[in-house]
Amino acid sequence: MKIATPSRDALKLELAAEVLREFAEVQFVARGSSMLPTIYPGDCLMVRAFGDGGPRCGDIVLYRRGDEFRVHRLVRILGEGSATIYVLRGDALTEEDAPVRGGELLGRVTSLARREKFLKLRRPIGVGQCVLRLMVRQSKIAGALLLGWHAMQERYFPGAESLAAGAGKTRAEYL
Amino acid sequence: MPPSVLIDEGIVERALESAGVTVEIGGVAIELRTSDSDFRKVIEERYAGFLNPCAAPACRFEIHLTADREPGEEDVSVFRRGSTWCLQRGDFRAEWDLERREGWIRQCANPYSIDSVLRITHSLLLAMEGGFQMHASSAIRKGRAFLFAGVSGVGKTTIVRLAPRDAVVLTDEISYVRRIADGYRAYGTPFAGELARPGANASAVVQRVCLLKQGRENRLRPVKRADAIRALMRHVLFFAQDNELVDRVLDAVVHFASSVEVMEMEFTPDCRAWEMVR
Fold it and tell me: Where residue A158 falls among pLDDT bands split at 50, 70, 90?
């Protein structure tokens, strides 16, 4: 899942990462569908820096790969100490991402806003979510149906867009 | 009063032991069952980073340990009889039924034998879907995988030993390559060479294959496609005497050579060699 940043300019990404380091919190609007059914395009994500516990398996993590930010789920932690490697994967994807080093992980998604509602991300996920995730992973049609359903809800519940638009401005933009 | 249930711990332990050990390499799982608890521990330790009890196995092997077979120098023989694959070498014999997805292995308690059976089984499974294993070391850098192929002694282990901190070593001996929608993906394997350390259980899209050559300077040289295919074929691991699968592997290598960069990499054995790997 890629993140809609004000610009994909590397400097602005740097600023957003800086804000996260400085204020331990930053908001983004998600785009892409690799994290279905957990995160839909347009969701506003609240990302917090890792506390003392550090990243844990199952966390949805913001990381930087080249000139873009990505939000995927942490599925495996390999090695220890400075040699630790993190393996992530989008909930809707069958393939894992190329592994990342600790320094590239920026923070954990703690909650998201969708249609004026704030949703806490539950751990562990429920059975319903688990089944949905499997379906989306196995079939593109299931993913397309979910996206269609989501778009229909967006359309018939106005107000959601204004929230997303407001939240779309990352803290980096306010600096 | 809630009803109390007494659980005999022995039963639980026996139930857990009767379930096999599922080893998943490159997203392909193989379940290994053995009644010998010591050998089970050997397997669990050897493939520690690659165990996935939740994975649906592509095949199940029942291992029977025999005392009389030790690894030797014999050549391996792999052939198909109807829907059954037969694998044999001096130190092991195995059969695997494609339709029932089940089989057995007779071998001594030497872990090298189980390594070989796993490698051969994976080579067959990979060949059926357009992938292959290659005698090459591999590592991920900046989100892309790089393979280093070459004959023994040319520096496959050396190059990954020199890997900088931001590189993730997938293997120093056997690279695992699968075809994906828009290219090829390299996966880590537990099969170690001189490094004596299993690779990381991770994967990435293949960017380049480097045909290694030790030299006096660090230099990358493009290779003609025909030469690339010839060189790659020398390093692909395939054991079966089966015309159909040999054809598929050849097709896969030809397609692979046209989808990823293949270059000759002359290098001096120091860490500056990695300046070419990006």
Answer: low
Supply the pTM of this predicted model: 0.81
* ipTM of this complex: 0.71
Whether residue B168 and residue A85 make contact (CB cut-off 8 A), yes or no, is yes
A16 or B150, higher pLDDT: B150
The residues of B whose Cβ lies within 8 A of any Cβ of A are 49, 140, 142-145, 165-166, 168, 180, 185, 200-205
Total beta-carbon pairs less than 8 A apart between chain A and chain B: 39
Residue A84 falls inside a structural domain: yes
Residue A17 belongs to domain with CATH number:
2.10.109.10
pLDDT value at A171 more than 70: no
Chain B nearest-CA distance from A48, in A, is 24
DSSP string, B159-188: HHHT--TT-EEEESSEEEEEEETTEEEEE-
B207-254 pLDDT tens trace? 999 999 988 889 999 999 999 999 999 999 998 989 999 999 999 999
Using CA coordinates, name the residue in chain B closest to A94: B27
Could you tell me the residue range of the domain that residue A103 belongs to? 2-168
Total tally of structural domains belonging to chain A: 1
* CATH T-level fold of B132-276: Phosphoenolpyruvate Carboxykinase; domain 3 (3.90.228)
Q: Where in chain B is the domain with CATH 3.90.228.20?
A: 132-276
For residue A173, what pLDDT is reported? 33
Interface contact A98-B144, CB threshold 8 A: yes
Handedness of CA A150, A155, A158, A161 (dihedral sign): positive
| C-alpha to C-alpha distance for B148 and B269, rounded to whole angstroms | 14
Element containing residue A120 per DSSP (H, E): strand A117-120
Beta strands in chain B (DSSP E): 21-25, 28-34, 59-65, 77-81, 84-89, 92-97, 102-107, 132-141, 144-149, 168-171, 174-180, 183-187, 203-214, 219-222, 236-237, 261-267
What's the token pair of residue A154? 């967006």
Nearest CB among B142, B185, B202 relative to A85 is that of B202
Is A21 part of a structural domain of the chain?
A: yes
Closest CA to A100 of A118, A87, A114, A82: A87
Tell me, yes or no, whether A173 lies in a domain: no
CA distance B205 to chain A (A): 8
